[in-house]
Structure formats: C-alpha cells, structure tokens
Automatic annotation (TrEMBL):
The keyword Metal-binding applies. GO terms for biological process: terpenoid biosynthetic process. This is Probable farnesyl diphosphate synthase. PROSITE patterns: POLYPRENYL_SYNTHASE_1, POLYPRENYL_SYNTHASE_2.
C-alpha cells in the first residue's frame, strides 16, 4: 500500500482542482480582497474527498462526468464555507487551516463571514444550473445539499458541538453530533452523485448509509489526530482544542480505533452492495483510513 492517500486518484483530483479554479476565476477579485479571499478559501489545498466521492459515485453508476464534477465542486464550496465559519473566534477559534493561517486571520472576520456566505450562495447557484441534469434532478440535488447544511445537518451539529463540547456527554450524543457535523455532507456528496446518475431510491439509501459510517469513522480519526503530536494524512491542523470532550478522550485511542474499524467495515459492506466487491470508492475508503490509522 502506498503511503499517499491520494494515490490512484490524481487524475480525478486534478479535474476537480481545475474546475474549481475555472469556477472561481482571478477576475472574481473585482472586490479585492473579497474575491481573493474566496478563491483562497476554496482553492486552498484540501483533500477534496467530498467532490471525489460525488464524482466516483456518479461515474461508477453511469452518470455524466461533467455534471458530477460540477455537483462535486458545489459540495466542496459548501465544505469550504463551513471551514471558514468553524475557524472564527466565536466558534472553534482556530488560527490555522489547511496548514495556512485561517481566513479571518489573514483577511479579518468581516471578510471571512462574507466569503462563507458567498461560497455557500455560489454552491447553490452552481448546482441549480448544472448542464445535462433534468430540472427535477437539480431540485433534488439542491434539496439534499440544503438539508445537509441546515439544522439537521452541519448547522445543528456545529451547535451541539459548541454547546456540548466542554460538558460531559454520553458517547451516543457525541456520535450523533459527529454524524450531523461530518456525516451529513459526506452523505450529500454521495447521494448527489447518485442523483446525477439517476440511481434508484434503494441505491441512494445505501450510499447514505455508507456515508454515515464514513462520517463517524472520519470524525473519530480527526479526534485521534487532534491528540497526535504532529500533523497527518488528513491534513489536520492539530491541537486547536484539546479540552473538547470527544469519543476518543472518553474511551481512549484503542477503543476509538476499534470503533473506526467497525464503521469502516460497515461502510465497505454498503459499497459492496452498490458497486460489487471492489470499486474505486472501496479504494478511496481503504487508502484514507489505512493511512490515517497508521498516523493516529
Ligand atoms: C453554513 C456551511 C455552513 C456551516 C455552518 C460552521 C458549521 C456550521 C459547521 C462546521 C462543521 C465542521 C467544520 C465540521 C468538520 C468536518 C471535518 C471533519 C472537516 C475536515 O474535513 P477534511 O479533513 O478537510 O476533509 P480538508 O481540509 O482536507 O478539506
């Protein structure tokens, strides 16, 4: 196994980065530094896992690659907005993101809030206008993305995390918040891939099940890495809030690793039911988690 979690996906990742760059041209900087800041936040070197999943799911279910690419870029724009907001002093108060000073550190909180709103609006504009998708599919994709952002998604998960993070919570409560904070956007990413491909309700439900397990495992790895002394495969900017109560801090790293393994094997089982015993999504899952588990 290679030590690079992105190995084998370079071509798809290049397409994603090129499309994001084209969607956010330098001329966007007409209101500098707003345009520059928007480009910086979206184009900063992230892993692009969510758009990659949209792309792989749609293509491997027979959907249009171009439509999947734009849908994935919209999901990444939502993700970028969530990271900008998450780092604000009134939220996680983080100064580093993707190895660089957080957006509000570089451009101020006012610009950071506007960038997040602009990125979110851009995502909906993009997904609502995707070429080659029926009007019904576009509406469905917008509805899925909206649900993933809203009070039963990122917003609700973030709220629970902020309010409950420093209190002792049951493991199940933390897991539920993790599902909203992390799983909901993974779920939207793969389900929108299914919508692009015209997948059945059953396949879409299976994709959501996969993403929920993935989200739980991913958040556990994220928390494990928060305790690790150095940065990692998940591109983690470590040590931002070591007082937060997490499943890892409550159960310890060994039990957390066992939970991760259980989530990953359930995620794999869902993928197998959709794509057969081996697929590019299986490959992505294995690469990300094998690498992360060695680091954490
Ligand atoms: C209105 C979009 C919006 C959000 C409001 C602030 C907020 C509510 C939610 C934040 C949720 C959040 C930051 C969850 C963390 C998810 C997570 C595991 C992020 C790290 O993802 P990676 O590792 O990051 O894929 P990269 O940088 O590689 O893209």
């Amino acid at each position: 196994m290679t030590s690079d979690p992105k190995a084998g996906f370079e071509a798809a990742l290049r397409r994603i980065d090129e499309r994001l760059e084209a969607l956010l041209p330098p001329t966007l900087a007409s209101h500098a530094p707003l345009g520059d800041a928007l480009r910086e936040s979206v184009l900063a070197p992230g892993k692009r896992l969510r758009p990659l999943m949209t792309l792989l799911a749609a293509e491997d279910l027979g959907g249009s690659a171009a439509a999947a690419l734009d849908a994935g870029c919209a999901v990444e724009m939502v993700h970028a907005a969530s990271l900008v907001l998450d780092d604000l002093p009134c939220m996680d108060d983080a100064t580093l993101r993707r190895g660089q000073p957080a957006l509000h550190v570089r451009h101020g909180e006012d610009v950071a809030v506007l960038v997040a709103i602009g990125s979110l609006a851009g995502a909906y504009q993009l997904i609502a206008g995707i070429d080659g998708l029926s009007a019904e599919a576009r509406v469905e994709a917008v509805a899925i993305l909206s649900a993933a952002v809203g009070v039963r998604g990122l917003v609700g998960g973030q709220f629970e995390d902020l309010r409950g993070g420093r209190h002792r919570r049951a493991v199940a409560e933390i897991a539920a918040a993790n599902g909203l904070k992390t799983g909901s956007l993974f779920s939207a990413a793969v389900e929108i891939g299914g919508v692009v491909a015209g997948a059945s309700g059953g396949v879409r439900a299976e994709l959501r099940g996969f993403a929920e397990e993935l989200g739980h495992a991913f958040q556990l790895v994220d928390d494990l890495l928060d305790r690790a002394p150095s940065s990692s495969a998940l591109g983690k900017d470590v040590g931002q809030d070591r007082n937060k109560s997490t499943i890892v801090s409550m159960m310890g790293p060994a039990a957390a690793r066992r939970r991760i393994e259980r989530h990953v094997s359930r995620a794999e089982a869902s993928l197998t039911r959709v794509f057969g015993p081996s697929s590019r999504m299986h490959g992505l899952l294995a690469l990300v988690f094998e690498h992360a588990m060695r680091q954490g």
